[in-house]
Amino acid sequence: MTPLNTNRRTLLGGAALLSAAPGVALSKPRARKSPLLAPTPPMGWNSWNSFATTITEAQTLEQARIMARELLPAGYDILTVDIQWYEPSASSYQYAAKPIPTMDAHGRLLPALNRFPSATDGKGFRPLADKVRALGLRFGVHLMRGAPRLAVERGLKVKGTNIAIADIVDRDSVCSWNPDMYGVDMRKPGAQAYYDSVFALLASWGVDFVKVDDLSRPYDAHMAEIEAIHRAIGRTGRPMILSMSPGETPVLRGEHARRHAQMWRISDDFWDDWKMLDAQFTRLENWSPYIGEGGWPDADMLPLGRLALGERDTKFTPDEQRTLMTLWSIARSPLIMGGDLRHLDAPTKSLLTNPEVIAVNQTSSANRPHFVEDDVRVWTARASNRDAYLALFNTGDKPRTVGVSLGLLGLPASVRVRDLWSRNDIGRAGGRVQADLPPHGAGLYRLSAV
């Protein structure tokens, strides 16, 4: 990483750092939900990138212990068991054409006992959740939208009613990539009662976070179920964070997403591929007006470290890994680690736990992109003491100098500069802040008034 250009040329004028100048204008105030379930972007670990559908109770507890020791001090506190924890024979990233999920008598999914033995005798995830919380973590689970197709075939009824689950589902509303469920037709009697019963069960287990899949796309077709899930969570009385997946959630539905969930995916599954990372810049730019106030556009998990059932390490180069963390932080996307923590090495841990970078993700405001040059991305934000944060990105395939005029950002003509990745003060900049960045590289800085 080369040092910033610190030429002493001074611009005339100047303004208070991150004032209401054109480059950093605050967004229009919105009514706040109170209390906020996710006042800052959620941070945690999810099993999908490393375990696919296969994670077991023993593996979950092993990940939880490592997470509590290595990542919890930096703020990562939500551990989520992803898809098909209810499927006894789940074995890979592929789904069985004819699944036989574990269920109760009312079509509510239960942990598969061969994988989660503490769920015996109807205890569900309660014993596992209690152990996870005893480590200082919160416990999350994944659900598919709808009701199990097997519950329809078996003639099961909605808990507390005489209504058959077959009578509340829409057999034409199916997921294009997973065969587990039928969508629920919210116009039918018993439809809300079914969702209420599902989330009451999760609440009884002590679940803190629910990722509901096959929900955000196509958004309008699932809007009634989104609202039903939101109501069901509220009726439990338990503060469960709702994460809607997968994307691409349409930006035009941003207000609806913010009212009904705390996280919503802005893309399909994100993996360790530069083209995918490059595409997230535009998506996060488009979603920037919706950052904050308890709602977080979600650029998906961090595919870092050991991935894909232990078959490989991340394909991202070290520079791309820094770009990933810089972008997720300045755009305040949730930080959800996806790699197998049993193989967490020192460079990856350092990348995930830099306190000055995490502070950008957790405490900044007025986060916004600027558009200055091809193959260059620039973001700014405001620190809690009104210093400025500046992220510079070289998305091109060759090294280049990336910079921006302080005047364009509405900043004073001269600032002190701190490199957040190296955690070093690197001097003053006058008129312009710039850095020599490698291909697919990034820099993240704190700018203070002189």
Overview of this structure, please?
The protein is built from eleven helices and 21 strands. The longest helix has 15 residues. The strands form five sheets. The chain has an eight-stranded parallel sheet. A hairpin with a 4-residue loop joins strand 18 and strand 19. Helix content is 25%, strand content 23%.
| Broad structural category | alpha/beta
Query: How much strand?
Result: 15-25%
Question: Order of strands across the widest beta sheet?
Answer: 10-9-8-7-3-2-1-13
E-strand count: 21
DSSP summary: helix tally: 11
Rg over alpha carbons: 23 Å
Which percent range fits the helix content? 10-25%
| Terminus-to-terminus distance | 24 Å
User: Sheet bearing the most strands, described?
Assistant: 8 strands, parallel
Rough shape?
elongated
Which regions contain 5 or more consecutive residues with pLDDT less than 50? Answer: 1-16, 19-29
Average pLDDT rating: 93
Care to give the gist of this entry?
It is built from eleven helices and 21 strands. With 450 residues, the chain is of the alpha/beta class. The two termini are 24 Å apart.
